[in-house]
C-alpha cells in the first residue's frame, strides 16, 4: 500500500522539489505589486494549498495519517480538518476537470461526488472506525485495479502531449493531474459506502452539519479561512503559508517568462502564420489557467495598469544596464557588516572589484573602504537618469534582493525639513517588530531633485553628523548614527540643492535601455495580454518613446483598449506615446544644421509599404519643414536657440557665392529680434509662433550632410558681462567726479570723447628723479596732473599680478575701457612714477580735506589771535599769568526769545549773576608758579599739523 | 578745474566765443523776466551745457556754481527701486532721466513734482521759479515724454524746464511746441582753431596754427574733443610741431580697421572675424548707432556712384531695425553681410563688363 502510494505521488513530490526556491533569498514582492487578480487568486489559493503543506512531506500522507487521531480527539478539530480536506479535494477536482478538458474526458459523476465526500467521511466516523478503515482499504485496492489505470493512461498521454509542446510550462497541469488522481482514489471508496439517495437523511442526525450539504460557497470559504487560521496559530508549518504561496507564484511567473522568452525568440524567425498558431496555443494555455468558462481576460485585470502588472519582480528580470545594477548591489552589500553583521569576505570582494574595473569604465567606482563604523565611505547612492528607465524599480528590487525592507519616500509625501527628518530617523533607526524574521529597513528617497534645500540639508547633516560623532563604539546604538543604506533617486542630478549631496554619494547614471531588450520584453507582455503586434512595431514604439519603458507599456495598454491589433500604422499615426520630449539644445542645432539622411524605414513591413502616406520621405522639403518646426517647437528655448544658430551658421559648409543666403539669414535674424523686442516690450505673446520659423530658414540655407561642430553660444553672455563691467567702471568713475566736471558729461560722452584723450593726458613724461629736484615747470605739470586725476576721480593703486609682481593700476581701470586689442601700444608710466603720482594724489586729497575742515575753524580762531596781538609786547613765559576771561555782561545783548522778541529781565536776576566776580581775580597774583608737564622728558610740546610734515 | 576743457570753459554769456548774437538774445530773454521752457539741441561738443550753465548764472548769479551730486531714489508703482544721481544747486537741479531706463517716466514725474512743489524762498531778490535741467531728452521713452508734457504746463508757476538733446527728431512734437528751441550749432573749424589758439595762449603755450587746424579737422567740429586732443598733444610733445601726429581715439581706429577688413574680402569667414571685432566694440560700450555710422562712413569712401546710394539706403534700413530691436549684433552683422553682398556683386559685374 505504502509503495503504491509513493508511486502515485512520485510525480507530485518531484514537482514540489522543483518548486523549492533555487535561490537562498527570495524577494517578497510588495503587496501592491501583486499582479494576480482576485479571480485568479481564488484558483491559485486552492492550487497553492497543495504546496503550502510541503514541509509535511505530503499533504495526503499527513491527512491520511492524522485523520483518525484527530477525529478521535474532538469533533471540532476533526470538522475543521475535514472541511479543509474536503475543500482541497474539491479544488483538485475542479482543476482536474479543467486539466482534462482538452482530452475531452467526461466525468459526469465527478460533479456530484465532491459534495458527498465529507459527509460520507463523517458518516463513516460516527460508525466504527476500525471496520470502516479496513473497508476503505479494500475499496482502494478494488478501484485502483479497475478504474484508475484507464484514467491514468489518458492523463499521462495528455501530459506527454503537452510536454512536447510546452516544455516546462505544464508543471502546474502536471501537479493538478497528480492531485486529481489522488482524489479519484479516495472518492471511489466513499462512493461505495454512501448511497446517494440517503445523503440528506444521514446528515440529519449529526445536527450542526446539515447545512453543509447545501454546497454553500460562502460557508465553505469561511470554514476554509478558519481552518487556515487555526493552522497558523498552531504553527503547523515552519514557514508561513503566505510566503510559501508567494514563492510558488514567483516560480510560476518565472517559468512563464522563460517559456515566453523562448517562444519570442522562435517567433522572430517565423512568419505570421506561425505566430498565429503560437498565439492560439498561448490562448489555450491561458484558458486552462483560468477556471472553466470564464472570460479570457477578467474585468479586474483590465483595470490594473500594465506598468504595475509587469514590473520586474526579481533581480534577473531587470531591464536596466547590468553595470548599474551590479554597482548598486555591490554598494548595498558593503553595508552588510553594519546591518547584518556579516563579514564581507575579502576574497570575493577583491575579485569583484577587479571584475568591475574591467567591465565598467563609465560607472563610478564604489569605494570599497569602510569607515570607523564599518559603513561604506559613501553613505548614499544616487541614481539619476531620465524618466521611465526603471530607476525606482531597480532600487526596490536590489534592496529587497539584498534582504532589506524597503521604505520609500517620494514627492507625494510632505517633504518639509521637519517631516523629512522624522521620516529619515524613523526609517533608518527603527525596525519592524511584527512578523517573524523582520528585515532591516533600506530608505529609498524617490524624486529627491524636487525636495526643498532645507530637507536635503537635513539628510546631509544626518550623513555627515555621524562622521563627527564617530568615537562611539562599533555597533553601539547611537541615536544619531546612520546605520542603514539610503538610496536617492532623481532625474536631474545637477539641481543646485543636490550639489553637496552629490559629493557624499555614489552616483549612478542610467544609460538608456537597449531598444532590442525593451522590445523583447514588450513582446512578452503583449503575448500575455493576447494582443497582436510584431517585433517591428514594437521596435518602432520603443523608438518613438525614446526607450521609456513606462511610456511604452502605457501606450500598449491604451492601444489595446481601442484596437485589437497594434500595427505600425497605428504607431505612426498615434499621438499617444510620443514623448513631448525636450531634446537637448545641441541635438536641435544638430538637426537644423544637418541634412536628413534618407531614412530606410526599417520598421516598414511588406504590408505597410503599400500605404503611401506611410512612406515617409523625410528628405522632401515639406517633411524637412515640418520636422524642423516640430523639433524647434518642442525644444522651446528660442532665445538660446537663436543665439546658437547665429554663432554657428557661418561655420557651416554651404555654397553661397553671392552671399545672398547669408543676407537672407541675417534678415531673418533681424526680424526675429525685432519681434522678440516687441513681444518683450509690449507683452504681446501672439507673435511668439513666428519665432521658430527662423530655424527652418537656417535649416534650408545651411544644412549640410556633415554638420559643423556646434559650439554652445557664449559670446552674447560674455559680451553682456563685459558691457556691464565696463559700464560699472565708468559709473564708479563718474559718481565721484567733481560736480563741476560731472555736470558736463554723460556716460556716452565720457566714453567716446573724454576718456581716450584723457588716458593720454594723464601720462606725461616725468624725469625719474625725486620730486624735490623738479623744476618749477615740472612741479606745475605734476600739480596739474594731480588736479586732473582728482577731478576725474582716478588714482593708481597697487595690485599683485599673476606672476607675483606688484604693479600700479588705474583705479577705476579706464585703460580696460579705452584700449582695444591689437592697437598701437600707448605709453605707460613707470612703476616709480605711478607710485609717486598715487602718493601725491593721496597727499593732495588730504590737504584738501584738511583745508575744508580748517576753513571754518580758522575763521573762529582768527579772533583770539587778533586780541593777543593787541595786548602789546610779549611777557616772558614765567611771568605770564593766566587770566580768567572777562565775563561779558549779559545786559549788553538784549535777550531774545524764540520769536525774536526782547525779553526784559527783572533787576533780581542781574544781581545774582554778578555776585562773586571779585574773588576769582585774586587767585594767581603771586610770583611763584608751577608748570606741570606730562610724561618723562622735558620736551616742549607743540601742536603740529599734518600739513607741516608734508 | 583741471583739464583745459573745464578750466577755460566760459562761465557767462558775455564770454562765449561763438554764436555771440544768440548769447545776447539769451541775455535779453533773461532780462525781460519772461523765461519760457527751453529746448537746447545741437551736436555733441557744441556747447549746449556751457550755454545752459551761463544762462543759469545769468538768472541766479554765482550761486548756481555751488554744485552737489545727490543720489535720489524713486519707487515705481511695481515697487522697483530706482537710484538716480542728480546734480543740483540751490536754484536748479539737473538730471538725466534716461539713466532710469524704462521707468524714466516715474523719475520725471516724481522729480518735477518735488522740485515744483516748493517755492523759491526769497522771491524779491531771486527769480520766482526754479529750473529743472533734463539732459538726453531724445533718449526718453515715449511714455516719459507724454508724462512730461502735462507736467510742463501744470508747474509753470514754480519751475521751468531746460531740455537738452542732440536731435529733436526723437522729441515728440507736443514737447517741441511747448519749448523755445535753441539750436546750438557745432563750431566751425575756424572757430575751433581760434579757441585752441587762445586757450594755449592762456596756458602760456605756443600752438602753431597748422596744428590747430589739423586738430580742428580731426575733432569733427567737436570743441570738447578738440580741446582734449590739443591737451593730449601737449602731453605727448612740447614744444608743438606743426606736423605733429594727433592721436585719435582707439575705438575710431579700431572701427576703421574693421571697415577696411570688410572691403578687403567678402566671405563668411570674414564675417566671423568682423563679428568678433564688432563684439569688441560693443563690449567697450560704444553705442551701436555710432558703430553703424562709423562703418558706413568708412565703407562709403570705398564705393562709387550708384553703389553709394544703395549702401546708404541699406544702412538706413538696418539702422532703423537696430533701433527697433534688442540685440545690436544681429543688425550690425546683417548690415555687414548686406554690404558684402552688394560690394561683391558690384565687383563681379564690373569684371564681367571688362571681358
From TrEMBL, chain A:
Keyword Cell cycle listed: yes
Keyword Nucleotide-binding found: yes
Subcellular localization: Nucleus
Stretches the record annotates as Disordered: 11-53, 847-873
UniProt domain AAA+ ATPase: residue ranges: 377-512
GO cellular component labels: nucleus
GO MF term list: ATP binding; DNA binding
SMART domains in UniProt: AAA (SM00382)
Cited InterPro entries: AAA+_ATPase, ATPase_AAA_core, CTF18-RFC_complex, P-loop_NTPase, RFC_lid
Biased composition (Basic and acidic residues): 847-870
Keyword annotations of the record: ATP-binding, Cell cycle, DNA replication, DNA-binding, Nucleotide-binding, Nucleus
Biased composition (Acidic residues): 11-23
Gene Ontology process terms (BP): DNA replication
Pfam families named among the record's database cross-references: AAA
PANTHER family in the cross-refs: P-LOOP CONTAINING NUCLEOSIDE TRIPHOSPHATE HYDROLASES SUPERFAMILY PROTEIN (PTHR46765)
Family as reported in the entry's similarity comment: Belongs to the activator 1 small subunits family. CTF18 subfamily.
Protein name (record): AAA+ ATPase domain-containing protein
Annotated organism of origin: Sinanodonta woodiana
From TrEMBL, chain B:
Domain of life (superkingdom): Eukaryota
Chief place where the protein resides: nucleus
GO terms, molecular function: ATP-dependent activity, acting on DNA
Gene3D superfamilies assigned to the protein according to its UniProt record, in alphabetical order: 1.10.8.60, 1.20.272.10, P-loop containing nucleotide triphosphate hydrolases
SUPFAM superfamilies assigned: P-loop containing nucleoside triphosphate hydrolases, post-AAA+ oligomerization domain-like
Pfam families per the UniProt record, alphabetical: DNA_pol3_delta2, RCF1-5-like_lid, RFC_C
Record's keyword annotation contains Nucleus: yes
Annotated localization: Nucleus
Keyword field: DNA replication, Nucleus
GO BP term, example: DNA strand elongation involved in DNA replication
Signal peptide, first to last residue: none
Domain AAA+ ATPase: 34-190
Record keyword Transcription present: no
Gene Ontology CC annotations of this record: chromosome; nucleus; protein-containing complex
InterPro entries: AAA+_ATPase (IPR003593), DNA_pol3_clamp-load_cplx_C (IPR008921), DNA_Rep/Repair_Clamp_Loader (IPR050238), P-loop_NTPase (IPR027417)
Subunit structure as annotated in this protein's UniProt entry: Subunit of the RFC complex, an heteropentameric complex consisting of a large subunit RFC1 and four small subunits RFC2, RFC3, RFC4 and RFC5; the RFC complex interacts with PCNA. Forms an heterotetrameric complex with RFC2, RFC4 and RFC5; this complex has ATPase activity but is not stimulated by PCNA. The heterotetramer of subunits RFC2, RFC3, RFC4 and RFC5 interacts with RAD17. Interacts with CNTD1; this interaction facilitates crossover formation.
Family under the similarity heading: Belongs to the activator 1 small subunits family.
Protein task: Subunit of the replication factor C (RFC) complex which acts during elongation of primed DNA templates by DNA polymerases delta and epsilon, and is necessary for ATP-dependent loading of proliferating cell nuclear antigen (PCNA) onto primed DNA.
Name of the featured protein: Replication factor C subunit 3
The species this protein was found in: Sinanodonta woodiana
